[in-house]
Amino acid sequence: MTATTPAPAASPDVEAPRLPGFDLGRLDEVSAALAARAPEYDRSGAFPRASLQLVHDAGLLTAGVDARYGGPGGSFTDITRILLALGRGDPSVALIAGMTIVPHLLQTRGPWPEELYRRVLAESALRPTLLNHARAEPELGSSTRGLPATTARRTAHGWSVTGRKRYVTGSEGLSYFLVWAATDEPEPRVGTFIVPAGTPGIEVVPTWHQLGMRATGSHEVQFTDVEIPADHIHELAPPGAGPAPGTLPGSVTLLLSSALYLGVARAAQSAVHSFAHTRVPSALGRPLATTGRFERGAGEIETLLTTAEQLIFGVAGQVDRGESVRGLDALAAKVVVVRHVTRAVETGLRLLGNPGLAQDNPLERHFRDIQSAGVHAPGEDAVLPLVGAAALAVGPPDA
Predict the structure, then answer these.
(1) Where are the beta strands (DSSP E) in 200-274?
(2) 96 in the same domain as 220
(3) pTM over 0.85
(4) Rg (CA), the chain
(5) Number of domains in the chain
(6) Among 203, 237, 271, where does a domain finish?
(7) When you count CB atoms within 10 A of the terminal residue's CB, does the N or C end of the chain come out lower?
(8) Are 291 and 207 found together in one domain?
(9) Are 284 and 291 within 8 A, CB to CB?
(10) For residue 58, how many C-alpha atoms fall within 13 Å in the half-sphere facing its CB?
């Protein structure tokens, strides 16, 4: 299957249009509309075009575009609220949308080429214009564990990109693939090559058949001699080069993206509460919500989710206030958030028992979706040794 051909790009000399604003007060409405469609997308695994159109129409895909580019200038806290609400409605849609929202949010810290970015915004004003990084590779696995095998070769007019990527979320509907690759120069450099969908040589290979998050379309993508212009590059540098001044640690955006899984857990919590209030066993004669067992379980779930929420929004607030955030601190927080949201949903499932595993119960889908929270790189196996080594390097505590 090949990538969808995008509509013709706007002329590069066209000024970026004024993009629609967004209303945080409408997030519950958007979330409910996504939730109504989520079960069908989960069953079919179809790409959720209608839901993404809804997110676009609400101005959420471009919520993070800075005012200098004609956008509404949403803050990190705003984006975190948006991702939480989208995750509560349909986490597959939230993940696809988040991959587009975050690059816009970071444009003022690690800018794309100006003319190319304005072209993307011109398209974004007209239709959902989806972006996502293509980093993981079949041989390499996580992009945190080595250098890419995908190569970019100089041509007379730009670059030619060749390689295979996996877990490319939204692959069927992307407008631009952000391909992590190494140049074939005598001294290779590594960076992101911005590849418009529909360029000859792109093939989407349908390999995504997962337990949860089934509508993300995170298929493998083969790039074969894909030609792109010379300026379609982002942050090309020698391997191991440090981030540019003012650049946020990538772990910060990973933590903020975990907000969508907090949304899954909040949706699961709602399903548990609904069951507890409506289920009245004949032998008991009153709703399960009035029993000590459900009260304790509900208390554990709320404690876990409130703590996770405080961690995520705490980091978002630090960024918005211009405070420095250590990458390791954000990674450690991500570990805790993932543990808490996963445990919260599992606790809800234990409370319901067999009814919670029925396919007509939304908790069954939430349980499957939340299993994906812990597999987004970097996982605990990569994070905990880094955090531990830094802690041990401080030396023993004073006697």
Answers:
(1) 202-205, 219-229, 233-237
(2) no
(3) yes
(4) 22
(5) 3
(6) 237
(7) C
(8) no
(9) yes
(10) 23
Q: Are residues 197 and 283 in the same domain?
A: no
Residue pLDDT, tens place only, 270-303:
999 999 999 999 999 999 999 999 999 999 999 9
Look over the chain and give the mean of its residue pLDDT values, rounded to a whole number.
Answer: 92
Both tokens of 357, joined, read 């595993």
* pLDDT at residue 244, as a whole number: 64
Is there a single domain that holds both residue 382 and residue 273?
yes
Tokens for 13? 């000399």
The two structure tokens encoding residue 49: 């075009």
Range of the domain at 372: 250-391
Span 136-147, pLDDT tens digits: 999 875 555 468
How many Cα atoms occupy the beta-carbon half-sphere of 71 within 13 Å?
24
Alpha-carbon gap, residue 175 to 131, rounded angstroms: 6
For the stretch 188-226, pLDDT in tens is 999 999 999 999 999 999 999 999 999 999 999 999 999
Confidence band for 20, pLDDT divided at 50, 70 and 90: confident
Question: Do 263 and 372 meet the contact criterion of CB atoms below 8 Å apart?
Answer: no
Tell me the helices (H) and strands (E) count for the chain, helix number first: 11, 8
- Residue 2 placed within a domain: no
Residue 4: inside a domain: no
Residues 6+ apart with CB under 8 A from 201: 223, 224, 225, 226, 227
- What separation, in Å, do the N-terminal and C-terminal C-alpha atoms of the chain show? 64
Residues 281 and 325 in one domain: yes
Are residue 257 and residue 364 in the same domain, yes or no?
yes
State how far the Cα of 280 lies from the Cα of 300, in Å rounded to an integer. 22
How far is it, in rounded angstroms, from Cα 263 to Cα 84? 4
For 204, 215, 217, the CA distances from 170, given in Å and listed in that order, are: 10, 9, 5
Q: Mean pLDDT over residues 235-244, rounded?
A: 81
Cα 39 from Cα 90, distance rounded (Å): 9
Q: How confident is the model at residue 5 (pLDDT cuts 50, 70, 90)?
A: very low
Q: How many residues does the chain have?
A: 399
Distance between CA atoms of 381 and 145, rounded to whole angstroms? Answer: 12
Q: Which two tokens stand for residue 289?
A: 């919500």
